[in-house]
Write a structure and sequence with these properties.
The structure is a single chain. The protein has one domain: Leucine Aminopeptidase, subunit E, domain 1 (3-Layer(aba) Sandwich), CATH 3.40.220.10. It is built from five helices and six strands, in the order E-E-H-H-E-E-H-E-H-E-H. Helix 4 links the parallel strand 5 and strand 6.
């Protein structure tokens, strides 16, 4: 599988699917999640509501899992939604306001992040997708560092012979893009 690291707006990616760093409701939120929902149109939230019933009150996608919907108004036919963990030990992490976003105290957030990434790749394989763009899941307000995301991503990418042709890590902000590129080169 070829790895690309690009700077840009993930909602403009022209490939088979993009990954949404979602919250457990799957109904939109801030950051990447909000941008994807706005670009896809209201049909995306309606689809999430219709396709995925709540597995617990307020939870359509538990942390560490992934779900897939059509892309609607996006240039990609599919959106793979995943909920990464909140890294509660990070000073930049927000407090969880949806039940289930914070992995319980016995769960290692790095393990849950690995589950999120692997779940997205498994859905892409099941759908026979060739190209996938992924943001830095759990970074930003969920408190994961870019370095930690890169470490976990590299481990998951190397863990199997994934059938994707290209996995593109898409970063929006200049600083995150530069840090991601440097970490990817530095981490063996």
């Amino acid at each position: 599988m070829k790895i690309e690291i690009m700077q840009g707006d993930i909602t403009q990616f022209k490939g088979d699917a993009i990954v949404n760093a979602a919250n457990v409701t799957l109904l939109g939120g801030g950051g990447v999640d909000g941008c994807i929902h706005r670009a896809a149109g209201p049909e995306l939230a309606e689809s999430c509501r219709d396709i995925y019933p709540e597995v617990e009150p307020g939870i359509r996608c538990p942390t560490g899992e992934a779900r897939v919907t059509p892309g609607f108004r996006l240039p990609t036919p599919f959106v793979i939604h995943t909920v990464g963990p909140i890294f509660s030990d990070s000073p930049t992490a927000r407090n969880p306001y949806h039940p289930g976003e914070l992995a319980d105290e016995y769960t290692d957030p790095e393990l849950v992040l690995a589950m999120s990434i692997a779940s997205c790749l498994a859905i892409a394989e099941k759908l026979n997708l060739r190209t996938l763009a992924m943001p830095a899941i759990s970074c930003g307000v969920f408190g994961c560092t870019i370095k930690k995301f890169v470490e976990v991503s590299k481990t998951i990418v190397a863990s199997e012979d994934w059938k994707l042709n290209t996995l593109t890590f898409m970063l929006f902000q200049d600083e995150e893009f530069e840090e991601f590129k440097q970490c990817w080169e530095d981490i063996g």
